[in-house]
Amino acid sequence: MPRARDLGVTIGRFAPGPLNAITDVPGVRIGHVTLIEGDRTRTGATAILPHGGNLFRDRVSAGFAVLNGFGKFAGSTQVQELGELETPVLLTNTLAVGRAMEALVAHVLALPGNETVTSINAVVGETNDSGLNDIRAARPTVAEMRQALEAASSGPVEEGAVGAGTGCIAFGLKGGIGTASRRVDGYMLGVLVQANYGGTLRLDGRAAPETSEADTDGSIVIVMATDAPLCPRNLTRLATRSFAGLARTGSALSNGSGDYALAFATTRGQMPNEMMSPLFEAAIETTEEAILNALLMAGDMRGWDAATRQPRQVRGLRL
Amino acid sequence: MPRARDLGVTIGRFAPGPLNAITDVPGVRIGHVTLIEGDRTRTGATAILPHGGNLFRDRVSAGFAVLNGFGKFAGSTQVQELGELETPVLLTNTLAVGRAMEALVAHVLALPGNETVTSINAVVGETNDSGLNDIRAARPTVAEMRQALEAASSGPVEEGAVGAGTGCIAFGLKGGIGTASRRVDGYMLGVLVQANYGGTLRLDGRAAPETSEADTDGSIVIVMATDAPLCPRNLTRLATRSFAGLARTGSALSNGSGDYALAFATTRGQMPNEMMSPLFEAAIETTEEAILNALLMAGDMRGWDAATRQPRQVRGLRL
Amino acid sequence: MPRARDLGVTIGRFAPGPLNAITDVPGVRIGHVTLIEGDRTRTGATAILPHGGNLFRDRVSAGFAVLNGFGKFAGSTQVQELGELETPVLLTNTLAVGRAMEALVAHVLALPGNETVTSINAVVGETNDSGLNDIRAARPTVAEMRQALEAASSGPVEEGAVGAGTGCIAFGLKGGIGTASRRVDGYMLGVLVQANYGGTLRLDGRAAPETSEADTDGSIVIVMATDAPLCPRNLTRLATRSFAGLARTGSALSNGSGDYALAFATTRGQMPNEMMSPLFEAAIETTEEAILNALLMAGDMRGWDAATRQPRQVRGLRL
Amino acid sequence: MPRARDLGVTIGRFAPGPLNAITDVPGVRIGHVTLIEGDRTRTGATAILPHGGNLFRDRVSAGFAVLNGFGKFAGSTQVQELGELETPVLLTNTLAVGRAMEALVAHVLALPGNETVTSINAVVGETNDSGLNDIRAARPTVAEMRQALEAASSGPVEEGAVGAGTGCIAFGLKGGIGTASRRVDGYMLGVLVQANYGGTLRLDGRAAPETSEADTDGSIVIVMATDAPLCPRNLTRLATRSFAGLARTGSALSNGSGDYALAFATTRGQMPNEMMSPLFEAAIETTEEAILNALLMAGDMRGWDAATRQPRQVRGLRL
């Protein structure tokens, strides 16, 4: 399946990095565990690692923003208070956040050098895949969550119906994981999204007629990485801009939406406020493109709707 | 000059009210004072009154949201704490907020029944009109601010280069005051904007080629009124949605932007969360259309740039 | 062991309820699971249920406040967005939050009437009991967490080294669970705390000389219940006041502190702002007394320090 | 009149600076204008200057916190967004905030080097002196506000019924301006308060029997300065701690209270989170002592109550 840019859909004015992926930010690693089993299991987890070292000992600055907080994002208050990330980020489904926290705690406790660690702020995002997945069945397990952490690698990022995006639905179409990146003033900015929300889809500003207006519910988690030396305050401001990219895709921002953005910087420092505007613009367009990639790379899927207790077929977006 | 809808630009899926203006919300009154004098004065003030009575005695529920807080919005902490509006809202220029507060205080002190009032939370929004106006010259005066309050009336709302929009620039074009409204589930939702920001203009999703990418700075104040019985928490959530309408017009959300939204309800009550989604969608599209109206109704203007100390000509948007 | 009031320490000016406990608020139930095993296990969980019915179907209004966010409180963003609680609250240790979420999810999924529920916002608070407990050993288990939920009952509340307070240390002394209540204008206000923080202890304003100034780290979770008909905004304001009670006990509010307050109302409604002041004052003094009860009811304890990997003895406060 | 420390009331464990005043922080300047005229005018303004240079060109990092937002604090959103102060801070009465903003704008526009400045974020705090002052009479004027700015100097700070504290009432006693300072780890921390609130006064933890429990309303503005190199996030955290000092004096934190804290650092830098705890403790005790100094230095005053329209006599605290 082609990505947005392969189809001639070019969002914004900045150039992407070589992979057009969050892994264009040096050091960033992504890992998926994808669970497609029988008629009912369509779920998974996606791990985002800011670098390959012991993150608990070598933390990165981070910021966090909420547009609509109908969601179960874990670890937000400590990120906001201390402005740093001390564990990888795990994305998964709505009812699996506790297990993802367990996996992150076990992961950190087990790292060499952490033998006396007694406090760990696990950061977990989620969207609800119950439209295609038997979400009540307690998958991924804690062990499966750890597989996503262990699978993390740099290089190209698998998109669409993988990892935490396996059972996602967006705009009544198959959603999932998407990514994109931008070069800005010598820095790299990368975004990864878990797209599972609704509204009236716009592709680079134009209405996409095959989507259903009636399907407006759902959520998105947006993770942003950069090697620009940003303080937590400016990372929070950067995270906020991703919601404008979300808005440009036609999101309905409904009551039941859980819209969260987390941004981290792999370089320490304090870029001045006056230099932020290009990064802010890039955050908008990178998010918009990452979402389109999530949709375009997802394909069709047959699964099980846990609310209606019926099988359900969801089509992938085709241009 | 035609408004967006007269030109066939129809934003969103809800129908507008009879005036397609914030004054479609029963009771809401708008007043402008427009100051165009000599070569250098291009400024003014716009008053928004939730109703025609003594607002200090008969308050309305209100919510407030900030996207980027580079601005001088007055009265925000008390609106957030108490969830209510006790004065009209005045919009004006960046260096005139103190005088607008003075005018609101004097207005409230002078109302019959307020003889022993000793605390008044004046609510004032602003954008920077120094691109066309000698903003350092201390206009509007306190007396001119009061003229805007006294001029307030229901009925059609003058748009474009009037009131607090007189000297506005948006997307490198002439900006100003715009308004729109929507009917939603038997309720009315109205928006009035003071549009003075930048980015890459999109008209109903399509790029508008005549704007300059280089002009990305500036601010917007968005005021939203409804007769739906919303509590302050849901008014705050409603206000937040207006930023999605802003994003859809192509805002760059730059470092220097002051993006504020205030929402008030003319009816007391507590509509449940579950009924909010249609209002949220309408808030997005009403804001987008109000902004387009501001641009389309503005026309050309010649004024004085207070930063470069030179005359400046700004064109209005033509479709 | 006597409670504060039994010792003549009378905090504030309002009268307590019959039990001087959070369970004086009609319907509120508390359950503990206490794990004291061998030399190293000193931990547990405490469940707070706003009422005995299906809380997911019959929700209560709630507010949330953070003083210092170095903590892992789960469920906060949805409580803030929607203003309601849809699961019981579990308190436990820092590394057990994921397991507590799992227990709450399983609890809600299993309730009759919840067969098609696919989204659950588990609310969990924690403090770090690693000074007396082998926190890395993954206790309480998910099953043990559910025992706390199942044990919940109205009536007197066990205090001190029980439930989530089993391994707590406060002011270098043994901390734990404490509770208190107040009657205010015909309503009942109750507080339950998990006290595990430091500073220089003050008993009703007077220094308590036996505490160590050097022990200033740690956290507190404060849960407040009332049958006054408060909206989420005023519940948030009420929650904020509890930090003044915390301050009056001599808290150092150190960098490593996780200070969280959650307030819920068992009655729906919108008490006006103007009636809040007595409840605000009562929130301060009830919190102060609940903390003193936690300390006074705790007794001595011998356990295991997970950071130093040594046995440790902590004395209880004696007046 | 003696200050707290002269009376043997020693708050906390850190040593004060040489003046035990906010001006112990190098560069900080304080200026008062005090208006006591006839029977009815008991008001004024107090200016806080972080340094003697052009602050608009040479800004200082700043943070801001609200405990209860029933107040008219101006400039807060920009301080929060950008983390910096670009004008001096003015404190005055509730209905004079607009005039204080006018004075700050005029002050900044007039400074050499600011000839093309077109945007100024005036920062103004207030409390309500209408219990002793004819607050409706529009004093201080803009010109009087500027006198406070021009009077600013380093050295000892006049306390009590001066400047913005002229008409203050606290705990039913005469309130006003107070200050204190602490040395912490080689840095200086200074606090200045405008104390005008109520509750049940505690002096170093002990009840002060002469105050009236019935007088619980009112507000406080707390300004904190340090030469420790703190980022805006940690300045915000520092500002938050001042509310614990407020709580320890017995504040009732009533509905009508406007409790605001602003903290700024005269040195740029990013002290790590792990070094903050001593500064946090010092912020608590410095605020508590500054409040006691405000009360002790205030003396008796006769004035005019603008709400009852009657003369009123208020006693000063005597130990």
Structure keywords:
4-stranded mixed sheet, L-amino peptidase D-ALA esterase/amidase, homotetramer, 319 residues, globular, 6-stranded mixed sheet, alpha+beta
How does this structure look, described?
- 4 copies of one chain form a homotetramer.
- Chain A is α+β, with helices and mostly antiparallel strands and 319 residues long.
- The first copy, chain A, has one domain: L-amino peptidase D-ALA esterase/amidase (4-Layer Sandwich).
- Chain A is 21% helix and 29% strand.
- The first copy, chain A, has helices spanning 76-82, 97-110, 142-150, 232-248, 277-296, and strands at 29-37, 41-49, 60-69, 84-85, 89-93, 123-127, 169-170, 173-174, 176-184, 187-196, 202-203, 206-207, 219-226, 258-265, 301-305, 310-314.
- Chain A has a 6-stranded mixed beta sheet with strand order 4-3-14-13-10-9. A 4-stranded mixed beta sheet of chain A has the order 1-2-5-6.
- In chain A, a hairpin with a 3-residue loop joins strand 1 and strand 2 (41-49).
- The radius of gyration of chain A is 18 Å and the shape is globular.
- The mean pLDDT of chain A is 96.
- At the A-B interface, strand 12, helix 4 and helix 5 of A face strand 12, helix 4 and helix 5 of B.
- Chains A, B, C, D: Keywords: Aminopeptidase, Hydrolase, Protease.
- Chains A, B, C, D: This is L-aminopeptidase DmpA.
- Chains A, B, C, D: Belongs to the peptidase S58 family.
Q: Would you summarize the structure shown here?
A:
The first copy, chain A, has 319 residues and is an alpha+beta fold. The first copy, chain A, is built from five helices and 16 strands.
